[in-house]
């Protein structure tokens, strides 16, 4: 199921898109990159994978590229070690321009022309081609659930897992479910009691704000709601009100630019909070620059997600990720949690491919899909909270859910808060319309 903290990133992007406007498709590019060098002796033809990304879109050129960059860095490192049992992985990427038409074109190109075995780390604004991917039996591994596709179609395996039937309809009777673990965390660990929710006066942003409000109220919070005009937002007024109301926490349904302006307004009016909570999409080293005008609020930023902090250099899988990103030209100052999740998605595919060769077979779509659908938890060498794909006939009413938490400190970057595999809660699951 799509967790609310993931949905927040999605709806913030939708909100931004509504203001940007969209009509004709943006120019499409195919940044095809073939593996260089011949396969080692004993190898075979390359294993082809596709990485589908809205690299150019109305929400900005870098909004979706993190998972793609992480996946490509992993495959580069894998190929340098000999690939999958001597077979190089040949990566074909396609930019859908952030449109449904472009997405369908990319799906056709990758599936029918390039004949990829699988898609990896899909991160797109409009996954219009999802029914075609599913119908062709092509496993889509470790994609970001920006829409409801990974809770709708078989053969699609998003980075966070799902227990939905995935029979062509989203979730259960068109409804998805998410838990209140983030709100429980701040209540239990930091004694928070009052929370503000800031949104735009735009349908998707307001809808997500209502979902956050429901979850907070279910956890016993007093909730302060603030709505600003998308075109001419008065962030100072919102910041002053949440200060007067004594908010401990601030959640939002806005894009990064809106968040940065809200933070600056909070600093201007002297609003101090326990945490300004953001999501995995904003969990990156660009915080120092994005929030340069809000030092106090910046150091109150907390991020929650379902993957291990990319700053956790004491963990061997994180060290491998960072070494791979450095070789790919992404130093410590240009890292993000979405890159780490793209790396984890590529590792997930590689483990699936190795399961095929281990049994003496070829790396085929069907074989990779069998590994993905086997129902066993997967954690990408500890980079992910255990991910499971299973099919439950009834929607969940409650669930034990763990959460990865980090906070920003100027002198340290993102600092992990506790063990993500032990920061777990039995929480209710709330329904929402995708």
UniProtKB/TrEMBL annotation:
Pfam families associated with the record: Peripla_BP_6
UniProt similarity note: Belongs to the leucine-binding protein family.
Domain Leucine-binding protein: from-to ranges: 46-410
InterPro entries: Leu-bd (IPR028081), Peripla_BP_I (IPR028082)
Keywords: Signal
Coiled coil: none
Source taxon at top rank: Bacteria
Species classification: Bacteria, Bacillati, Actinomycetota, Actinomycetes, Kitasatosporales
Matches recorded under SUPFAM superfamilies: Periplasmic binding protein-like I
This protein's name: Leucine-binding protein domain-containing protein
